Amino acid sequence: MSDVQSYIDGLCALLQRLPVEDIQRVIDLLLAACTSGHAVYIMGNGGSAATASHMANDLSKGTMAPGAPRFKALALTDNVPLITAWANDTEYGNVFVEQLDPWVEAGDVVIGISGSGNSENVLRAMRLAKTRGATTVGFTGYDGGKLARLVEVNVLAAGATMAQAEDVHMMLDHLITTVLRGMLEERFASL
Question: What values do phi and psi take at 92, rounded to 5?
Answer without folding.
Answer: -60, -25
